[in-house]
Amino acid sequence: MNLNDAEETFRPKLTHGLVFLMTLTCGFTVANVYLNQTLLASMAQTFGVTVAQIGLVATLAQVGYALGNLFLVPLGDMMERRRLILILLGLVSLSLAAVASSMSLIWLVVFHFTVGLTTVIPQIVVPLAASLAQAEQRGKVLGNVAIGLVCGILGARLISGWVDGLFGWRAMYWISFSCMVLLMALIRTRFPRSRSSTAMSYLGLIKSLGPLLRREQVLRQACVSQGLVFGAFSVFWTTLAFLLKSPAYSLGTETVGLVGLVGIGGAFATPVIGRLVDRKGAVFAGIACTAVALMSFVLFLFGGYSLPAVVFAAFLLTVGTQANQVACQARIFALSAEMRSRLNGLYMVSTFLGGALGSYLGVLAWSRWQWAGVCITGIAMILVSFSGLIRWRNTSGKNQTSLESN
Fold first, then answer.
1. Distance CA 398, CA 138 (A)
2. First to last CA, the chain
3. Of 302, 2, 267, residue with least CA distance to 153
4. What pLDDT digit, counting tens, does each position of 106-147 carry?
5. Which positions ≥6 away from 35 have C-beta within 8 Å?
6. Rounded Cα distance, 156 and 36, in Å
């Protein structure tokens, strides 16, 4: 009996309540990485430092998150996943408390790094959800769980700004600490125990990542596709505040959070894409999602100085980006049951790198060509992803490899 057959034999029942708890877990934990983005100005004032110095907080949190995806997420293939999630929740809780108690910039930066490093819990939960779901419903389940990721990312910016205005930035971290403790209690009693899928050592797991990426064309294609689409997503969100502060709008940064609310609404379209994945396949769904993201940037380009157009385009971009993630994850999770955590870790590292590239290119494009340059940059990134998906569709039946045969 291979691992995929074993998965069918020992799968616990995946209830609607469990899917909802997984969605909440993903949302509340991923928010920890993005809380600081709205709080940087207040932190700089607290410690009397410059904008450039306080920027290390956001940078190190993202670096920690990337390293956590690379070095901690693969543990999901080796350890029992509920136990691993509880350990990581304990560590991120301590890190959040340390951030809230930080008395100097250097400790603030260090503890934000540990927050990023240990808050990779969603990338353990998503493979767990994929393992518990029936193959014919996997896309739908991943789409439902993905709602939490988008709500956490976009909602963190909005809620942290409100809390900072009322109680100060430290209060936001204590609130998040309390949420992590509550999640630990819920997960301990509600999450099913999983079976480890490999007897490899940790060093063996890490050494297997490079050969895995080289061997699996489907994984590489998924990494490039979502890396570029998420990069375009970052191009927009990194530069939106510049657009809204420009003379065309003269609005404050709080408006960015309000636009983010529309994006959260777009996240609820991901279950629809999940069902499309189940019916039409992940490649077809990916092409459709990428086309929606491309439409959003065309609308940004020609309607960027109309706030209703920007809001609607932000909705489309969120739908396209998150739905493409669901399509790509459905594709890679179908490769092998025993390597889902490693597959997802590599996939998320590439997504993060694409987002970092998009943020850099977005600021560069704005500084040189303003909003038109931003839109053209986003269009170019999505077009490369779209063309890759078309080639993927044309060759998917010919060149796929099988992890089980290696």
1. 24
2. 16
3. 267
4. 999 999 999 999 999 998 998 888 888 887 777 778 878 878
5. 156, 160, 172, 173, 176
6. 9
* Domain housing 267: 3-392
Using CA atoms, how far apart are residues 135 and 132, in angstroms rounded to an integer? 9
Q: Are 277 and 139 in contact (CB under 8 A)?
A: yes
Section 177-202 average pLDDT: 87
Residue 34 covered by a domain: yes
pLDDT at 225 over 50: yes
CA distances from 175 to 26, 109, 167, 223 (A): 16, 19, 11, 34
Whether residue 308 is contained in a domain is answered as: yes
| 59: Cβ contacts below 8 Å, ≥ 6 apart | none
Q: Is residue 46 part of a domain?
A: yes
Provide the domain count of the chain.
1
Q: Is the pLDDT of residue 392 over 70?
A: no
CA distance 207 to 213: 11
Calculate the CA 15 to chain-centre distance. 24
Quick: pLDDT tens for 148-174.
Answer: 887 888 788 778 878 888 899 999 999
Rounded CA separation 155/273 (Å):
22
What's the CA gap between 234 and 374, in Å, rounded? 11
**Residue position matching structure tokens 């959040």:** 96
**pLDDT attached to residue 1:** 43
The number of residues in the chain equals 406
- Cβ-based neighbour number of residue 106 at 10 Å: 11
Nearest to 324 by CA among 354, 356, 298: 354
| 365: CB partners within 8 A, 6+ apart | 235, 239, 373, 374, 376, 377
Give me the pLDDT at residue 239, please: 79
- Which CATH number belongs to the domain containing residue 192 in this structure? 1.20.1250.20
Residue 403 maps to a domain: no
Distance CA 260, CA 237 (A): 9
Q: pTM of the predicted model, to two decimals?
A: 0.74
* Rounded mean pLDDT, 26-49: 87
Q: Which of 163, 192, 185, 197 is nearest to 31 (CA)?
A: 163
Triad 117, 122, 126: Cα angle to 5°:
140
Q: Identify the residue with better confidence: 300 or 352.
A: 300
Using alpha carbons only, give the angle 98, 99, 105 rounded to the nearest 5 degrees.
115
